[in-house]
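Re: the 438-residue chain
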Amino acid sequence: NECDVDTVRVVEVEGQYYEYVRPACVEQAFYEGGKKVADTRKNLNTCANNRLPYAMEACCQRGATGSKKVATRNYIYDGERMTFDTAGKKCAAIGRELCDFRKIDSRVSPTFKTGYHWTTAECSIEVKIDQRGYVSMIYIIDNKRGAQALHISEGNLNYFKVYWENDEFPNTSNNCGNAEGCVALSGGECQCKIALTDGMGFSSKPSSANDILSTLVVGAMNPQVFDEDMFIRQEEHDFIIHLMNGVFDSNTIFEVTDDMSRTFFLKNVRSKIDIDGGKYSFRNAPHFMSMISDTWPSSIGETTRRDAEYETEAVLDHYFYHSNVAPFLCIRLIQRFGISNPSPRYIGTCAKSFHDGLFTSGGHSYGSGAYGDLSAVIASIALDREARNPVLDSDPASGSLREPILKVIGLMRALGFEHDDRIGTTQLYGMNGKIGQM
């Protein structure tokens, strides 16, 4: 019964078997209440969010201590992942309990069927902050037995950018901010304890879609996937509010369409990381790839090609919708169409066509209205007055200046140059000093 499991990997439909591929979903890098998960095969330890289905169960006899913490299993299918609470219920169903086990009984669960398993040991996350304000994550694990992956260890050098409130952060120049829970490290970094603060983004109805887009960053599922009567739809001027059970709270979902025709579903929550009671704060960072890494050759972790592809697609989307993309592309396209130094007005007209997906000239419209429609962009370049006005032909600053190397190649073609097959490659020596390009 699929209702008895937290995750589904393979489903059977009318005798055919299909792999379930989870849709794109991010998780937040920082959380509280983490639990140690352990892999006895590889002697590895890491920390996991107890609300996510990232490990398997390991059930000990009630009250077992020391070497008697030998765990058995109670799962529905091989490799089943579950949350910490579900693992506890599965153990309770066979009269056992979760524990910080020493090993898993190979007589009831072959070694090749084990992986990362939930334990009752606590773990927490601290941050290491460099002079730029970038942070790396350090997992502090109780009763750590065995190795810990480098990307979450005290030697972690995988720094990433976070957004500090007021651009202020602990660093060695301010004595780590004199913040409680922070210590200066020999390498010039500060290592700090953190606290997670989750709250509502809006306590009352926001005034506009722009307010929502500038405040909320945590996504939500489309309310249509839930039961019909779970959310009440409330339409406003330029956004839609979906109220769970008719109540405006942190479960409220805002449906907003931005000026690039993208529709977002945003949850009414803000998640931030506080240091020293909020003296310093930054936004809780999202990521697609799990921090529970795979181990070769067993591949028992949660890092998957699926999430790598999702993250790559998200990065490409971010680049595509960046505000610099339209003018950047327009300048280069116009230059290829014969004007080396287009005016700001010309570039702006082209960029607007890229953004709007439409261009109108002489009573005709070009483009579909979709962001990035190149038919509108090309029309705006070819039909603009700067490209068609013959008066500009007399302006020596107008027109296209060919690249130096293209001039040389054009001269060679005009003189009927032909490659000699006896010579491997035609080489042009010292061109950088002669024409300034090569």
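The chain has nine helices and 24 strands.
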